[in-house]
Amino acid sequence: MAAKLIIRQQVVRGLIILGLTGLVGIGAANWRMLTRHPERLFTALEKIPERRVALVLGANPLTSSGHPNLHFVYRMDATAALFHAGKIGHVLVSGDNHFSTYDEPTAMKAALVARGVPAEAITCDFAGFRTLDSVKRAQAVFGLTQCTIVTQRYHLPRALEIARVCGLDAIGFCTSDLPIRHSLRTELREIIARTMATIDLYVLHRQPRFTGPFEPIIISER
Prior knowledge:
By secondary structure, the protein is of the alpha/beta class. The protein has helices at residues 2-36, 70-84, 104-114, 131-140, 156-166, 180-204; strands at 41-42, 53-57, 90-94, 122-125, 146-151, 169-174. Strands 1-6-5-2-3-4 form a 6-stranded parallel β-sheet, with helices on both faces. Strand 3, helix 3 and strand 4 form a beta-alpha-beta unit. It starts with a helix and ends in an 18-residue tail after the last helix.
């Protein structure tokens, strides 16, 4: 009995140490990303520098209950505002399209056209299955050396860190903030996503699921 008790105590102690180590790792990964790029985050349209291309990260246009997804709506609104203010000249919309009935890039393009962005000023990346894929493919497949990344404020630190690691000179434009009831669950998931991105970037050196042929974006004069 005494031996079993000692073993049980050792197991519990090991689990506690493992849990604390995990929490420290999660905290360190998030602190690193959240504090690394403050000068590259912009919220005011009039203050953001001009970049030729905006990379817009994908989102489902509808929630699971069938209502308009404010993450999607606000990203489209912010991108259209950048374009009409002359802050960008072209848009690369990158999202998930691995099911025939699920097509984020096409929905994003349609939404931007409805907001007055010309169809010829929009390029679709259909293999942006996650943020890492979207950012790395923007450079490796579409030939970007600079861009403005458009997404929610909580999402941008991770996207900008991925850009920094792959050598893409990116700045971020924050969309309007969502009401907390619409974003709390996603923001909590982002805590884990930043941790996993740290592992992907610095331990696994993970690459996009698909690269494909080089397709540099040709920007027509406005």
